[in-house]
Every structure is written in structure tokens, then in C-alpha cells.
Amino acid sequence: MELGAARVGEAGGWAYVLEPSSMWGSLSERLKAASSGTELICCSYADTMETVAYWRDRILLAQFETTSPRQRSGQEPDLLEEPMRRVGPTAVPRPRPPDPQMPREAR
Predict the structure, then answer these.
(1) Which band of pLDDT confidence, cut at 50, 70 and 90, is reported for residue 23?
(2) How many helices and strands (H and E) does the chain possess?
(3) What is the dihedral of CA 47, 43, 57, 74, to 10 degrees?
(4) Where in the chain are the domains?
(5) DSSP bridge partners of 43
(6) Gap between the Cα atoms of 60 and 28, Å rounded
(7) What average pLDDT does this structure show over 42-54?
């Protein structure tokens, strides 16, 4: 079994984990356990899907995909609405870099 490497640290009173080569840490059962007695925000990216999940004390409060931020789930799905409004307009999907295997005229 191959496991991805993770980097950890602290900034502004928050601890963080950066796991650039896998999604292992962003699985719901792991986030539920990690949020026990605290709160956490998980931002994950897989292919074209970017997901933000906010957990507090083993409960998923709010979750959404950045390409469709108005479609939310969790026990308090609108909890992050005001902070989202403050940072600007709804998320716009990032353009994907061209596939180097694709012929130039098809890019």
C-alpha cells in the first residue's frame, strides 16, 4: 500500500496538515475523528472537484464544492455563507492546463 506524505504546522492559532499526494486525510471517517473536541476545515481537490468541509466536535456542519457553492450540505449548511460573501463572488473553476499529450491544434 502506498501512503502519501503529509506536512504539518501551525499558523495564526490553527494547526494544519498539507497532504499533496493523496486524499487519505480527507475521508469523512478521518475528519470526524480528527474534529473530536475541536473544529477543522478540510479543503480537498481531486480532478476537477474542489470541496470545502467544516467539522466541529465530530459533526459535519457545512460542506460544498467550489464550483457549485450554493449547493451545500451538513447540519448548518449556511454557516459559511457570510465568510464566503466577504471573500468575493462565487468560485469560478480554474482552467485546466493543456494536456501535453493532446495535439497542439486540438488545445
Answers:
(1) confident
(2) 2, 6
(3) -60
(4) 7-94
(5) 52
(6) 9
(7) 87
